User: Fold this.
Amino acid sequence: MKLGNIALVVALASSPLAPPVGAQSVSTTIDRAVAAWAKATTARAAFDQTITNSITGGTATSHGEFLQQRPDRLAIHFNDDGGRVVSDGKYLWIYMPTSAPGQVIKRLTNEDGGGAPIDITGQFLDEPRAKYDITAAGRDTTGDAAQVLSLVPKTGQAAPFTRAKVWVSDKDALIREFEVVEKSGVTRHVRLTSLALNVPIEKSAFTFTVPKGVRVVDQTK
Assistant:
């Protein structure tokens, strides 16, 4: 599954603080990112994703866009093969015609221990100190300057990744880039190429229509 395990996923709002200069503490970076994300109600973004399989050594890239309405609506569309991941508030629909042709998986949205997070970047910012051991992983100045943090789930915490890195923008505390290592050994690196927050989104965007001839694998029972 592509972005579905990502564990897409992304602090998306403007920070009231002035842009910092140089490195900042882990605590300051986390506080800025949490405060920024708390102001977001909806998000629309385009993304690039690179998947690396540590077992086979293979890599794959994909591109797409996602729409999100907090707390439980999500629609991810992959441009490459028409794959979709949709949360309608009750069910999570996963349709990946390349990796799982001819079927769509239907789950309850609260079954998120190893599945797709409904809040793509918010997964890193929901009570982060309680859920993760967080350390500084440097500062990236190759594009928009960002503080890089390493997150490792604490013992007993369910998470769809064994470790993660997030890039928190110096300018506005948005997370526009992150990388997760899944339990399977797959590494997913996601970069947002465009981002708009608190934009109007039609309800129909979060409705999944099963394609003709596709079998539904119902995992809700």
Notes: The longest strand covers residues 42-53. Residues 3-202 form a domain with the outer membrane lipoprotein receptor (LolB), chain A fold (CATH 2.50.20.10).
